[in-house]
Amino acid sequence: MASKTPKALKGGGLEKVMYTLKTARRIGVKASAKALTAHNACKACGLGMGGQKGGMTNELGEYPSVCNKSVQAQSTDTQAPIPHEIFEHPLSELQELDGHNVEHLGRLDTPLYKAAGDDRLQPMDWDAALALAAERFIACAPKRFFAYASGRSSNEAGFVLQLLARAKGTNNVNNCSYFCHQATGVALHNAIGTGTATVQLADLDQCDLVILVGANPASNHPRLIHKLRGVRERGGQVLVINPVREPGLVRFASPKSLRSLIAGGDEIASDYLQPKAGSDLWLFIGLAKAIVAAGAEDRRFMQNHTEGADAYLEFIEQTGWDTIGQATGLSRESIEAAAEIYAQSTHTIFAWGMGLTHHRHGVDTLEALANLSLMRGMVGKPGAGLLPLRGHSNVQGMGTIGVKPVLARDVIERFEKQLGLSLPEDTGMDTMACLNAAHAGDIDMALVMGGNLLEAAPATDWAKTALDMVGFKLYLTTTLNRGHLHGADHSEQLILPVRARDEETQPTTQESMFSYVRLSDGGIDRLTNVRSEVDILATLGEQLPLQGSFSFTPFRQHRELRAAIADTIEGLGALKSIDDSKQEFHIPGRALHKAEFATPTGLARFQVPAVPSHSETGEFTLMTLRSEGQFNTIIYEQEDSYRGMQHRQVILMNREDMHERNLSDGRKVDVRSQQGSVKDFEVFGFDLPRGCLAGYYPETNPLVGTQVDPRSKTPGYKSVAVTIEIHS
Asked: Domain named Molybdopterin oxidoreductase: which ranges (predicted)?
């Protein structure tokens, strides 16, 4: 199938305006207007908007702060219920549906049960479903249970989920950050004592340079593009570092700017570096070398506010340009030119996505990025700092309120003191460790709240087996996805339909990537047979034989829940009064506008990579990536209009590599790795470095291995050694 010429591509544009209008009409004008203007936080990326300032307004009062992703998210939740006739089909037939078709079956509005060995999902009434869930939950041994949550849910639901697991006696509770930004949290904590963004949204209006690395906000965080346009309009620069030359990062036609639409878009990147996949660590070392050679480092800041600088400077001195060039595929001159842009800046914000974290050396890479920012004192002042681009609207909130396998000692003590509940002391399992345990037959029950664990995981066939080895799976979800249809051929599972964020009968809260906590009113009625996640979890908790006076029953009231969170989680004290005050807030101590760091010495810390190792080597290195028509694992549309691809079974390839192999656009290939293979994919030429391939996630996840970064426990989704076999 033909693709568009990449030179003609751009982000945004009139077609996105028309898509939004088409989607709004499909939803219904009244329903879409209500969904987008209600006082509820946006359901899409972690940039955040909505809440008490109103549906399409951000924390700065900017309106309209809405994007295509916001509309797409609403389109899923406003679907009609799935017809019960669908469940008359055997599981084998439903498994033939692709992700797009499954997500568009409609909203789930009845509990579904599948017995072990059965081949159908059977509708079930709520009383029987909750009784079964409670029976399996109580019977399961604590060490043979794990809980997992996506960033779709509220802080309140996440707090009850992790408390439920710990009250049962296990710390096997985690969230989707282990498949996205865990490397960020580990690296930033090592460098500056905090694992979150050091900037607020307002800082993006004060910087003169944004260095955007390993991210494609044109597709995944469209409202950030408007901030990047603002940087360029006031004379600043945007340095993009990404192996794939993304059209939306070159030019973007803002749908809310008539001038931009008429002009065919605005220039976003002032400079664009395309290193080989997985080589950013060496690029950051090269940029640091060039900064030192130019005498552009801030020696006063380094001396007064950091430690370990001498060791790092010695390390970069010993790393040769030949090594850097070989690893990155970039010339010394191009790296020095980029370093000059950085050297001229007085207020730089570094922003990045999973192009940095999805590697088996992700923590090392992020520590090198932090080093680069510290060299010029770009952390600890307004208009400068570090900005991880969170992919879901409340994934950061999940970590904040304790949905993770390890809690700090002081948090545990507050839990035990304020709640009167003893917590387990052992270290819980991260997401991949849970799946490994499942694959080994050591997990009897999994509670999965939101998300699509199967298709977020690497090694899809292996993950199916792992999940099928779990005796009983309990899913809490708004819609079905392929993760509910696969990995259950021989095992038992129960799928419970839950309210979306704006359907909750009581207010909930969410946290953005800027550590801004919003209050969502809920209150929209769409379906009659769905329940709150909090209510379901509290029901399970009430069945536990707990010691002392602690009870889950009061937590059915979200106001009581928020009071408990305020008493136990540092920085969230304002939740205790938010029901009455309606005052949303930044979590204190997160934004670093002064050079004061939460490390034992109060100094930021340079980190020296132990032994930098190149990415996996093979004929090619494959990167998995998302399309403009998807959000995380949700496929809203098959076409990727920004890259000119008409479907998702494609491999993007350097045109010179194609020419050497006599490949033309649309030629069928099979792709193989040590982990698995995908077949009958069409190859298309695209602007990316030689030796690099790109394919859509989760379609190419069967190629991704189960090996992880030893420190973040994140798989290497974007540095997969593969070979291709050309169809004759």
From this structure: 107-463
Do residues 374 and 187 lie in contact, with contact meaning Cβ atoms separated by under 8 Å? no
Specify the 3-state DSSP secondary structure of 149: strand
With CA atoms as reference, report the closest residue to 516 among 592, 587, 590: 587
Instruction: Check residue 17 and give its pLDDT.
Output: 47
CB-based contacts of 650, cutoff 8 Å, min separation 6: 3, 681, 682, 683, 684, 695, 696
Residues 42 and 394: their CA atoms lie apart, in Å, by 10
Give 692's strand partners: 621
Closest among 539, 532, 536 to 503, alpha carbons compared: 532
Alpha carbon distance 87, 91 (integer Å): 8
Binning the chain into helix, strand and coil, the percentages to the nearest 5 are 40, 15, 45
Read off the DSSP letter of residue 369. H
CA 31 and chain centroid, separation: 28
Quote the tokens at residue 448: 């999965």
| Cβ contact 48:65 at 8 Å | no
Contacts 24+ apart (CB under 8 A), 311-319: 311/606, 311/608, 312/288, 312/371, 312/606, 312/607, 312/608, 315/285, 315/608, 315/609, 316/285, 316/288, 316/289, 316/292, 317/289, 317/292, 319/282, 319/285, 319/289, 319/612
Q: What are phi and psi of 447, to 5 degrees?
A: -110, 115
Query: Position of tokens 């842009």?
Result: 341
User: Nearest-5° angle of CA 7, CA 227, CA 180?
Assistant: 80
The runs of H, that is alpha helices, within 141-279 are 155-168, 182-192, 217-220, 222-233, 247-250, 258-262
What gap in Å lies between CA 325 and CA 312, rounded to an integer? 20
Rounded Cα distance between 275 and 332, Å, is 12
Question: Which residue pairs from 94-102 have beta carbons closer than 8 angstroms and sit at least 24 positions apart in sequence?
Answer: 94/121, 94/485, 95/482, 95/485, 95/486, 97/482, 97/485, 98/482, 98/635, 99/455, 99/481, 99/482, 99/633, 99/634, 99/635, 99/698, 100/635, 100/636, 100/637, 100/638, 102/480, 102/481, 102/482, 102/485
- The answer to whether the beta carbons of residues 651 and 679 sit under 8 Å apart is no
Provide the total of helices (H) and of strands (E) in the chain, helices listed first: 29, 28
> What's phi and psi for 600, nearest 5 deg?
-55, -30
CA dist 458 and 619 (Å) reads 20
Check whether 488 has a pLDDT greater than 60: yes
In DSSP terms, 211 is beta-bridged to 239, 350
Give the CA distances from residue 247 to residues 14, 262, 343, 666, in Å, rounded to whole numbers and listed in that order. Answer: 15, 17, 27, 20
**Do 215 and 238 touch, CB atoms closer than 8 A?**
no
Q: By mean pLDDT, which of 144-153, 257-266, 304-313, 630-639 is the weakest?
A: 257-266
Joined together, the tokens standing for residue 528 give: 């009659």
Q: What pLDDT does residue 70 have?
A: 85
- The rounded distance, in Å, linking the Cα atoms of 366 and 281 is 8
Average confidence (pLDDT) over 102-119: 96
446 beta partners: 146, 473
What is d(CA 479, CA 126) in angstroms, rounded to the nearest whole number?
17
pLDDT in tens, 290-327: 999 999 999 999 999 999 999 999 999 999 999 999 99
Q: What are phi and psi of 209, to 5 degrees?
A: -150, 130
* Token pair of 69 as six digits: 């992703």
What number of residues does the chain have? 728
Question: Among 527, 532, 451, 699, which Cα is nearest to 106's?
Answer: 527
pTM score: 0.95
Cis geometry, peptide bond prior to residue 698 (ω within 30 degrees of 0): yes
Could you write out the three-class secondary structure of 623-691? EEECCCCEECCEECCCCECCCCECCCCEEEEEHHHHHHCCCCCCEEEEEECCCCEEEEEEEEEECCCCC
H or E segment at 307? strand 306-307
CA pair distance 492, 481, nearest whole angstrom: 17
